[in-house]
Design brief:
There is one protein chain. The chain has about 260 residues and is of the alpha/beta class. It is built from 9 helices and 8 strands. α2 runs parallel beside α3 (about 80-90) and α8 (about 235-245) packs across α9. The longest helix has 18 residues, at about 110-130.
Length: about 260
């Protein structure tokens, strides 16, 4: 796989904060060797959001996202949570509100609490003029759940700040609905193995796409080198270039410009 010397790539969604501390310099080094210059570390709890901020101060390659994931709400979003997030945003350089959204599988926090927390964090993003990178996962064959997620975004006027649909794996009609509201579609490693996702991405305008890995520690994989890391953004970019039949310079330049436009 060729390396490119054009505009660097950006991993717009990772959980690099969850790796062992001693591994992070090596992970960043491998990313830079694969032309990945910046990595967004997305918070999922108050503590992990604080860790994302701490890492962003240690490593210029890491950008901090703060938020509470729908599966980490522990009964709901408290006033203390909101105050903590507000304090973090007020006193640090935050790139986005992430990771927030809805997660329908039965192991998650009650869906009522998820909706409430999603709406609250969208409005927090609006208060601080930060984009949202949202999680929107459905129970298999329950597309109406995705529709509900997008409905919340519309109702809360989240297009005021924009953002991205994280780890997109849905269909072209829902992608276009999201794009029409002013959001990007963030594409991860599933594009390397899912023909239906490749066909959907082929139909998208590159001006609407971001790149991500959603990387986190994967001890269930016996070989450490097979864990997903920010370096894998390069492979994702190559696959998008292939399915869209464009060159890597176009992919690198446009997706990076897309990300910078989103956070500025």
């Amino acid at each position: 796989m060729e390396h490119i010397t054009v505009k660097p790539l950006i991993d717009c969604h990772s959980h690099i904060d969850q790796f062992d501390e001693h591994e992070i310099p090596e992970i960043i080094h491998r990313a830079k060797n694969n032309n990945v210059k910046y990595i967004v570390s997305a918070g999922t709890t108050i503590d992990s959001s604080k860790e994302c901020i701490r890492l962003s101060k240690l490593y210029p390659e890491i950008l901090a996202g703060v938020g509470i994931h729908p599966m980490d709400l522990n009964g709901g979003l408290s006033k203390e949570n909101i105050l903590s997030l507000s304090y973090m945003i007020n006193n640090n350089n935050i790139s986005c509100i992430s990771e927030i959204g809805l997660d329908y599988p039965t192991s998650s926090t009650s869906i009522e609490k998820q909706f409430e927390a999603f709406r609250t964090q969208i409005n927090l993003a609006k208060d601080f003029h930060l984009p949202i990178i949202f999680h929107c996962r459905e129970t298999p064959n329950q597309k109406e759940q995705i529709i509900e997620c997008l409905k919340v975004i519309k109702q809360e006027k989240a297009w005021v700040v924009g953002g991205a649909w994280h780890y997109f794996q849905s269909d072209i009609n829902l992608a276009k609905e999201c794009i029409d509201m002013g959001f990007y579609i963030s594409v991860g490693k599933p594009i390397l193995r899912l023909p239906e996702l490749q066909l959907t991405v082929k139909k998208l305008d590159i001006k609407d796409i971001l790149l991500e890995t959603d990387s986190f520690p994967q001890p269930f994989k016996k070989q450490r080198e097979k864990w997903t890391e920010p370096k894998d953004v390069l492979a994702i970019a190559h696959k998008i270039a292939e399915v869209q039949d464009v060159d890597m310079k176009t992919i690198a330049t446009q997706t990076t410009e897309n990300f910078l436009k989103m956070i500025n």
